[in-house]
Write a structure and sequence with these properties.
Blueprint (H helix, E strand, L loop, with lengths): L18 H25 L5 H28 L3 H22 L2 H11 L7 H16 L6 H30 L2 E4 L10 H13 L5 E4 L2 H10 L3 H12 L15 H17 L5 H6 L7 H34 L6 H16 L3 H4 L5 H16 L2 E4 L11 E6 L5 E10 L9 E6 L2 E2 L4 E2 L2 E8 L12 H18 L16 H4 L1 H7 L5 H4 L14 H10 L4 H20 L9 H12 L15 H4 L9 H19 L4 H12 L7 H9 L6 H6 L5
Parallel strand pairs: 5-9
Antiparallel strand pairs: 1-2, 3-4, 4-5, 6-9, 7-8
Helix pairs in contact: 1-2, 1-3, 3-6, 4-5, 6-10, 8-13, 12-21, 16-18, 18-24, 21-22, 25-26
This protein binds zinc ion.
Zinc ion binds next to helix 16.
């Protein structure tokens, strides 16, 4: 079988993947898979692991190996032709997945396997349990009419979430502001000015060009003295893809959001759940919707007093600073930065010279080398999707290859914003061979400007560690079956454990000394600056906490309380949640949900709470390193073997207890956030 988009012998053939090949290639692959499944079912009456589950694991692996690079390129080097090809494949893939998940013969065959528990290994039993659960969640028990309806809903949702992302991307790309009067940019650091200058040159206009991608937006909100400029940019940013703002109605996600909520609710009810939040929890670590709501409410109650005090302090400071007494949404970041500088005499810009990207990357590798005994090496000459992309391999202390990854660091046009890790190839192994896991690590950092190396903010350093934590979870797995190896099959609310866990090392002197050094002088971070960083670490952490809780509660309650008969008003619920947990009330034209891709286009629907949930796990896990030493090799080895290597082969609570020796406690998170002593 030859396929122009799939190379089963090695890495994806990125530079050879042509948009016109994609749809026919995927179609061919899906049709072959259909035939093979039929064949597997016809060839036997007595099913077992070897003649059913094993070949299906391989089949699924084939499809995800072909599709992963397409979805990835769609995110990082999008084009009209690629978007068309990608969009054309979505309904085909979704139809195939639903077909398989609703195949009654296949489900019956898996029930035979379930009855053979004593002949199966624990990971095999886990896969069978997951598969039977997924059959139920895919409507296997529905009447034929309901099953057809379910199929239509799944396909429609896949299209709608894709449209949501595309609107957001187009709306972000669709606004820019050309500035010719340098005075308007007063306050901006050199790096932000350089970026805006570079953008103007690329667009062949005079002066400076501001865009809505984050590396342009954030410095303006943080540093621009021109209040009108901040207001203009804030307005454009928070009204992207909506019915408000400078491009009102052009890429409006509003109707799409309504449809998504309505279809999710209908699907959940078809499957016997009261609402989509319940459906979401069927595959998560949290026990039920009440547990999630009370978890969030409890955190809010503990954090609100501090958040309120922080906001009062900010208001008082702004008044004293320049007489401002009407703090608007486009002012809070600006005065917060001034207050941070006033209180701690430190800004993000002060530490940037100590974080040149190349040193941060190699220091991060040293850190995980000390923790887990692994070695990361760059490999040249690998085919990728863009010249900026680097490629690395990971070997363990027996020099055994464990995994490989691509690293795509910088923001550019037609690349989705944010940072993420995704799987390219999953670990799969039989007695003859090992298919090594491969990951994509993607960030949107400020690219190098002129001759200088790219300098990262400390936030960006944390982001990099975060994504690398996900990457290690995917790449260091020792599980042999792709459906539960690495991050596959890991509950969403536990999947942020390794990523948030690794961020902790960005705050440790011993770790920073491995990599933070001035890009011109090579000098380490001076004690005075480091002490300021630590002092400022929990600056406004109460306000940040309640903001995350606001997003989490809004997402969860929106899916839990959706009423198809009632006035589905996203914004009135958001107001209600804000009454409960928010300290800052944005202006009425703010359309933040219209760009909330995590829940409308990503996997976080009724699951945004997962970040805080997993932060409890990651803080508590890190506290064992605080007790034993942050580079204690035995504790590192235990984290590696109890968590990172296990993937989705066991329940997250079981894995956590294996590492920590007890159930998770909220104390470490509150202590790390400065909310309790
Ligand atoms: Zn993450």
């Amino acid at each position: 079988m030859s396929n122009p988009i799939l190379n089963m012998q090695g890495l994806p053939p990125f530079s050879h993947i042509k948009p016109q090949h994609i749809e026919p290639a995927i179609e061919q692959l899906l049709n072959e898979a259909r035939k093979q499944i039929q064949q597997l079912l016809d060839d036997n009456n007595d099913y077992n692991w070897q003649n059913l589950a094993q070949p299906l694991e391989e089949l699924d692996d084939h499809i995800s190996r072909a599709w992963s690079p397409i979805g990835h390129m769609h995110s990082v080097v999008n084009s009209e032709a690629l978007h068309e090809a990608y969009s054309a494949c979505l309904p085909k893939l979704s139809a195939y997945n639903t077909e398989v998940a609703q195949n009654p013969r296949l489900c019956a065959a898996f029930k035979q396997l379930e009855a053979q528990a004593e002949q199966l290994t624990a990971p095999q039993r886990k896969i069978i349990a997951n598969t039977l659960r997924d059959f139920r969640l895919s409507g296997i028990d529905l009447s034929p009419e309901d099953r057809d309806r379910y199929k239509l809903i799944v396909q429609a949702l896949s299209q709608l979430t894709n449209e949501f992302s595309q609107n957001l991307l187009d709306a972000t790309d669709g606004w820019s502001l050309n500035i010719s009067d340098e005075a308007r940019l007063a306050g901006l650091p050199e790096s932000a000015l350089g970026l805006a200058k570079q953008a103007a040159e690329q667009a062949e206009v005079d002066g400076w060009l501001l865009k809505l991608e984050f590396p342009y937006y954030l410095p303006v909100m943080t540093y621009a003295d021109d209040r009108a400029l901040r207001q203009e940019m804030y307005t454009a940013y928070v009204t992207r893809a909506s019915d408000e703002g400078p491009n009102a109605g052009l890429w409006d996600n509003g109707p799409i959001m309504e449809q998504i909520l309505s279809l999710r609710h209908e699907m959940a009810q078809l499957l016997g759940f009261d609402n989509y939040a319940e459906y979401s929890l069927a595959t998560k670590m949290a026990a039920d919707t009440d547990q999630v709501i009370s978890f969030l409410a409890d955190l809010a109650e503990r954090s609100l007093p501090m958040a309120k005090k922080e906001l009062e302090a900010l208001r008082a400071f702004a008044k004293q600073y320049d007489g401002s007494d009407d703090l608007e949404a486009w002012d809070t970041t600006y005065y917060s930065e001034k207050l941070r500088q006033h209180q701690y005499a430190i800004s993000q810009e002060d530490v940037k010279p100590y974080f040149p990207a190349n040193r941060v990357i190699s220091g991060m590798f040293d850190t995980v080398s000390r923790l887990f005994g692994i070695k990361v090496t760059q490999i040249d000459g690998i085919d990728t999707w863009h010249p900026d992309v680097m490629f690395f391999e990971i070997r363990d202390n027996n020099d055994t290859l464990r995994g490989q990854f691509y690293l795509d660091l910088y923001a550019r046009g037609q690349k989705r914003g944010g940072a993420w890790m995704d799987d390219c190839i999953c670990r799969r192994s039989d007695s003859n061979s090992v298919q090594h896991p491969v990951a994509y690590l993607v960030c949107n950092f400020t690219p190098p400007i002129g001759e200088n190396p790219a300098l990262l903010t400390h936030d960006e350093v944390q982001t990099l560690f975060h994504e690398f934590g996900h990457g290690l979870h995917h790449m260091l797995t020792q599980v042999d079956y792709p459906s539960i190896s690495g991050i596959s099959g890991v509950a969403w609310d536990a999947v942020e454990l390794p990523s948030q866990f690794l961020e902790n090392w960005c705050w440790q002197r011993e770790a920073l000394d491995l990599f933070a050094a001035h890009y011109q002088t090579g000098e380490k971070i001076p004690d005075e600056l480091f002490n300021k960083m630590i002092a400022a670490k929990n600056f406004q952490s109460g306000m940040q906490m309640v903001r995350q809780l606001e997003f989490s509660l809004f997402d969860f309650r929106m899916h839990k309380e959706y009423d198809p008969e009632g006035e589905a008003n996203i914004y009135s619920l958001l107001d209600e949640v804000r009454q409960q947990v928010a300290v800052i009330k944005p202006p009425s034209f703010n359309r933040f949900p219209h760009s909330f891709g995590h829940i409308f286009a990503g996997g976080y629907a009724a699951g945004y709470y997962s970040y805080k949930w997993a932060e409890v796990l990651s803080s508590d896990a890190f506290s064992l390193f605080e007790e034993n030493g942050i580079f204690d090799p035995e504790t590192g080895e235990r984290f590696l073997s109890a968590i990172l290597e296990q993937g989705g082969s066991k329940e997250p609570m079981e894995l956590f207890i294996a590492f920590r020796g007890r159930e998770p406690s909220i104390d470490a998170l509150l202590r790390h956030s400065g909310i309790s002593a």
